Amino acid sequence: MVLERVAGIPVGFWPVPPSLTRLPALDVPREQRTFTAAVGGVMREIPAADVIHLRNLDPEDPLGRGVGPAFALGDELDTDEFVARFLRASFWNNILPPAIASIEGLTGANSAGAKAFKESLSREHQGPDKAGKLLLTSGRVTFARLNTSFRDMQLVELRRFLMDFVRMTFRVPPEIVGDISSSNKATAFAARENLAEQATLPHMELLRTEYQLRLVPLLGEHEAILDYDGPVPADREH
């Protein structure tokens, strides 16, 4: 966050995405350090004293930018995106047919017998109301399937697992994101309490601690103590 000051007193702040900010160099005196931020497409130098850098420390680089929980989900998010791209590409014509069939006695794919067979196959078996009908034909048939069904690849189960994994990483109950497949009235109310207690409250406490440590002294109120309204709902009567 970049502080806005009037007569040296902070009166507001502007959130700046970390992806648009470059950390100051540590080999210069503290009072000369500056952050470099892209504002409106223009790179600007901002004094470090006017920046409150909220971050989760990276154990491998404690003095660096920091790392959030989403960093650990990189592989899962990429996998879900690749599955979605694969499903999308599967509905485009990729030249490869789903299967190849050979019937003994047919001289070619464009012969009269082959055309008659394809017309009969389309007439008797195409459409949802004709699914599962028995096909009878004369001659020896050789059939080879070239594709793999989505059911065999378990893509739906994979995407559901990835969604649940990401949700659980951020401690979000399934009801909050619209998954009510296994919920009832009691779990719906409990989901809001769990979200507030397990996800919202720790984040609010982190912000309160950082503001108390770094923002309150700038206001000249050294004895002031920041507080917030608890997000956890009060116990309801059943």
What does this structure look like?
With 238 residues, the chain is of the alpha+beta class. Among the domains are: 2-67, no CATH class; 180-237, no CATH class. The protein is built from five helices and seven strands. It has helices at residues 74-90, 112-125, 150-153, 155-169, 185-214, and strands spanning 2-6, 9-14, 21-22, 34-39, 42-47, 99-103, 141-145. The chain starts with a strand and ends in a 24-residue tail after the last helix. This is Phage portal protein. Pfam families: Phage_portal.
What keywords describe this structure?
two-stranded antiparallel ribbon, alpha+beta, single chain, 34% helix, 7 strands, 5 helices, 238 residues
Kindly summarize this structure in a few lines:
The protein has 238 residues and is an alpha+beta fold.
The number of helical segments is 5
Low-pLDDT stretches:
none
Distance between the termini: 43 Å
Radius of gyration: 31 Å
Number of strand segments = 7
Strand content: 5-15%
The quaternary organization reads as: single chain
**Could you report the average pLDDT, rounded to the nearest whole number?**
83
Q: In terms of structural class, how would the helical and strand content be classed?
A: alpha+beta
Helix content: 25-40%
Shape: elongated
Organism: Corallococcus interemptor
Protein name: Phage portal protein
Pfam family, one: Phage_portal
